[in-house]
Structure formats: structure tokens, C-alpha cells
């Protein structure tokens, strides 16, 4: 049995969990195991964990708090944490998302100030207690079973409910959020923002490395560590996501789409598109019912 009063251990290594979440999207998954355990780890996204069954303690930053069935836990990005389960037959639902899971800049508007304050507070770790919040199971069930727009609406509804809820416990109030790891996390967010803003023109790794005052090799190691994929893979993924949207929503010629999203040649665009989607751009468009305009 874990003793919550024990002195916090100094963990020798933090594992970085990198989950590939599509831009303007989120990830929902269930964990159902007889004996649950996790490692001391971080990830670059926000996380909501709803405890369906089981109990234990979460070590988060410099704090430790107990959780039990029915509790909902909101965690901020890049803060190391570990679940220390005391029971058997664990069942939880996890939601992984970033600030742009709806649309880029959504949480920066004035009308979403309460939600922005909630996400800023999440860096301390928040446990919303189930006995005081009987709407948790209902909303989590909807998030788990729906997809697309309806799922996004239910997630937003849950965040709104949490933003006006004052029945929670803070896990870690005094963690050093300005540690080297945190500084690197902030830099990685700046790097991703720069890439996202310039992804659809010719963009080379040397340019980005120079912009952030790093050598090519240092930048490559930094990007792989804090983003979890290579620069080229991340950039290509952004471009292909944009291409999919254009293929579905416009009659723009395929050759123009490839050029507009940053590919030098149509063959390079076709090859990258096929590798990521399993279809050629023409096959993808045909499946979506969009007819290409001649030209």
C-alpha cells in the first residue's frame, strides 16, 4: 500500500510520452486492467482522466494526492507525474488534447477567458471529486461514444462545467515550473507555432534551426525529443492534413493544391499523400465526392 505521507522520491529519469494527435483534434482511450501501473512521465498535451473504478494516489510535480472512483483529474502539459494505484481492476477514460483541439487560437479569445483560466490553472494539477459532480459519468460517456463535431461539443461542455466548478483539490502548488525541462517545453511550443504558421511555403530545417539559434544537429535532437517525431514527418503531416481539407472542400486542381501547401513537385506531393493516407490525392477526392476542376 502506498503511503501518501512518504517523502517524494527523486526520479532519475522522466519518460516523454509522445502521442501523435492530428492537428485540431484530440485522443480518447480507455484503460481497463487488473493491475494498473504507470511510470514517471510527461507529455506535451493536456490530459483529463476520469476514474471509473479503482483508487490510489497521483504524484504530480512536487505533490501527491489521493484519487478514487468517480474523480476526474485535469493535468497540464509537461509536468512529470505518475499514477500509483492501490487497488485492483482499474478502469479509466483518458482524454488528451491541446489548446488548438477545436480551432487555432480559440482559447485566446475574450469570450473563452474562463476556459483559458482553467487551462492555466491545470498546470498545478486538479482533482474534481466525483461525489460533488454527478454529471461526470454522463459527459464522459458521450465523449467516449461520439466522434467529430459532437465529441468536440461534449468536450467543450465538460471544460465549461469544470471552469465554473470550485469543488476541487490542487495537487502541486509549489512545483518549479521554470525548470530546464519546462523552459524546453515552452521553446518547443514556440517552434511548433513557427512551423504551423509557415508550413505551406518552402520551409527547411536549417531555417527553423537558425531562427531559434540552434545548429541543425542540436535542433534535430531537440525536436525529436520534445515533439516525438522528426521535423520532416511533422511538416509533411501538417501539409497532408491541409491537402485533405482542400480536396474535400474545393474543386481546386490537384497540381495547384500540392504547390499551395509547399511541395516542389506534384510527384513529391502524390508520394507523400499516398504514404500517409494509403490513397492518391485523386482517389481521396473521388471518395469524398469532390470533382476536380479541369486545368
Plain-language structure description:
With 295 residues, the chain is α+β, with helices and mostly antiparallel strands. The chain has 2 domains: 15-170, Jelly Rolls (Sandwich), CATH 2.60.120.280; 180-288, Homeodomain-like (Arc Repressor Mutant, subunit A, Orthogonal Bundle). It is 40% helix and 19% strand. Strands 2-9-4-7-10-11 form a 6-stranded antiparallel sheet, with helices on one face. Strands 6-5-8 form a 3-stranded antiparallel sheet, with no helix packed on it. Helix 1 (113-121) packs across helix 3 (148-163). The termini are far apart. Mean pLDDT is 85; it is low at 1-12 and 289-295.
Strand content: 15-25%
Q: Please give the CATH class of the largest domain.
A: Mainly Beta
The order of strands across the largest sheet is 2-9-4-7-10-11
Q: Give the H and E element order.
A: EEEEEEEEEHEHHEHHHHHHH
Can you tell me the CATH topology of the largest domain? Jelly Rolls
Q: Can you tell me the CATH superfamily of the largest domain?
A: Regulatory protein AraC
Please give the radius of gyration in angstroms.
21 Å
Mean pLDDT: 85
CATH level-two architecture of the largest domain: Sandwich
Largest sheet: 6 strands, antiparallel
Separation of the first and last Cα atoms: 70 Å
Domain HTH araC/xylS-type: 189-287
Protein name: AraC family transcriptional regulator
Organism: Budvicia aquatica
InterPro entries: Cupin_2 (IPR013096), Homeodomain-like_sf (IPR009057), HTH_AraC (IPR018060), HTH_AraC-typ_CS (IPR018062), RmlC-like_jellyroll (IPR014710), RmlC_Cupin_sf (IPR011051)
Amino acid at each position: 500500500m502506498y503511503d501518501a505521507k512518504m517523502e517524494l522520491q527523486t526520479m532519475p529519469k522522466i519518460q516523454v510520452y509522445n502521442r501523435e494527435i492530428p492537428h485540431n483534434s484530440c485522443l480518447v482511450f480507455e484503460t481497463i486492467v487488473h493491475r494498473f501501473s504507470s511510470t514517471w512521465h510527461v507529455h506535451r498535451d493536456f490530459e483529463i482522466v476520469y476514474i471509473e473504478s479503482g483508487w490510489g494516489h497521483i504524484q504530480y510535480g512536487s505533490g501527491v494526492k489521493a484519487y478514487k472512483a468517480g474523480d476526474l483529474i485535469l493535468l497540464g502539459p509537461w509536468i512529470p507525474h505518475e499514477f500509483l494505484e492501490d487497488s485492483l481492476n482499474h478502469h479509466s477514460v483518458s482524454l488528451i488534447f491541446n489548446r488548438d483541439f477545436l480551432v487555432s487560437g480559440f482559447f485566446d479569445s475574450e469570450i473563452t477567458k474562463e476556459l483559458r483560466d482553467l487551462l492555466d490553472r491545470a498546470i498545478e494539477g486538479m482533482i474534481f471529486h466525483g461525489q460533488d459532480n454527478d454529471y461526470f459519468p454522463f459527459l464522459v460517456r458521450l465523449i467516449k461514444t461520439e466522434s467529430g463535431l459532437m465529441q468536440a461539443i461534449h468536450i467543450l461542455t465538460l471544460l465549461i462545467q469544470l471552469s465554473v466548478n470550485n469543488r476541487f483539490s490542487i495537487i502541486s502548488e509549489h512545483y518549479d515550473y521554470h525548470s530546464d525541462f519546462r523552459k524546453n517545453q515552452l521553446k518547443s511550443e514556440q517552434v511548433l507555432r513557427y512551423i504551423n504558421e509557415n508550413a505551406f511555403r518552402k520551409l527547411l530545417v536549417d531555417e527553423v534551426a537558425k531562427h531559434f539559434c540552434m545548429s541543425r544537429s542540436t535542433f534535430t535532437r531537440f525536436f525529436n525529443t520534445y515533439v516525438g517525431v522528426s521535423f520532416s514527418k511533422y511538416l509533411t503531416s501538417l501539409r497532408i492534413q491541409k491537402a485533405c481539407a482542400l480536396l474535400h472542400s474545393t474543386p481546386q486542381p490537384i497540381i495547384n493544391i500540392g504547390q499551395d501547401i509547399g511541395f516542389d513537385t506534384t510527384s513529391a506531393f502524390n508520394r507523400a499523400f499516398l504514404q500517409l493516407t494509403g490513397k492518391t490525392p485523386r482517389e481521396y477526392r473521388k471518395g469524398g465526392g469532390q470533382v476536380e476542376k479541369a486545368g
